[in-house]
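Quick illustration for those who missed Monday's session on complexes.
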Amino acid sequence: MSTKTATLTYDNKSVEFPVHGGSIGPDVIDIQALYGESGAFTYDPGFTSTASCESAITYIDGDEGVLLYRGYPIEQLAKDGDFLETCYLLLYGELPTKAQKEDFDHRVTYHTMLHEQMMRFFTGFRRDAHPMAIMVGVVGALSAFYHDSTDISDPHQRMVASLRMIAKMPTIAAMAYKYSIGQPFVYPRNDLGYASNFLHMCFAVPAEEYKVSKTFAKAMDRIFILHADHEQNASTSTVRLAGSSGANPFACIAAGIACLWGPAHGGANEAALNMLDEIGTVDNIPEYVRRAKDRDDPFRLMGFGHRVYKSYDPRAKIMQETCHEVLDELGIKDDPLLEVAMELERIALEDEYFVEKRLYPNVDFYSGITLKALGFPTTMFTVLFSLARTVGWIAQWKEMIEDPRQKIGRPRQLYVGETERNYVPLSQR
Ligand code: SDX
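Prediction with s-citryldethia Coenzyme A bound:
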């Protein structure tokens, strides 16, 4: 353990704090004793300089555009692996052997069906309900059906709940989609791989055989890998905070889905495609770039910028390649949205505003074009993000629950409200 320290001088008193170093990345100044020693809190809205936990799962270097899952570069996992292998890696810390992979795939496959009564939840929603509203509701309700995997103190129940979440999210997501278009639900099939099974549940109809395109299945699987985990982002921090109270894993994942929905986070892929649609043609780009730079205009380039990446998001590069593969498979040579996206990226990356603020395309910039080409409506984009991110949320939740130092998260505040004053009876107001 590091012997480095940091000293803070406050109110004519110096307080020394231990500094901890990780395997890679910035050191942390351990300020747990600050309030007891100084009577003051730290102040860090948005947690721009705060490490909320110790984790061994995912590492991001925002300056270098590096993303590692358990030490493996995202580029290698996306190129040579598959999503369930990545799930195993994120959950257990090592790539599975052949036997471990076969066993894990089998266990996930045999948890894909949903309790039949859960179908009634869907019919309670309006057909035009946003699928993310359905995901929050139905995932939160899982704890009402799977009581035998809600005791978080039991490692076996934690493992079963983890597998159920990973296995059932595609089924629930596909049902949310089918419900929104008025088509019958399609049951999962045990003879299909994870991504193929999901595409089949989304696009098959009882009236005829549906053959899943290998290119589409590979693209879908790779998109899941890219979105699987991302350190302590807003939705993962939400899951950790919910889990820190001892809430069951299904409720914690529902909280993560709710947070991911926001356009500043996972909702950006839907917002980015809507933005490209609104821009419409390359000629309109300069006006939108002007608006994005105008501090008085709330408009931002959706799919651009990132709290951590101050260089190109490595996922965006892979997503762009995947986008071209899917469009090529479809024989789409000049997709107008892709044309606008690539010209917007070119202009933005040359513009001093974006260069100075180090704003680059993030994972959400190209994902929307790819998902639209795969046949999904924009309202399903964040649902697909939540499907993929479930394994990251579960892995981070598991890491927290298994940490013997774990305690409930309870931040403090800088109070700027009224000081104490006496009640005035209504007759005197
Ligand atoms: C995800 O955290 C994660 O890891 C998230 C994620 C994951 O995998 O979990 O990577 C997924 O959420 C990706 C991000 C998707 N969101 C968007 O694409 C929405 C558009 N981006 C912005 O809202 C913004 O960039 C954020 C929210 C992503 C990051 O915001 P920060 O870190 O709080 O940065 P900021 O808002 O303080 O911006 C810094 C400056 C500001 O200008 P000034 O006030 O300093 O003058 O850059 C400007 C911002 O106005 N800016 C943008 C911009 N993003 C930031 N200006 C125009 N367009 C943009 N997109």
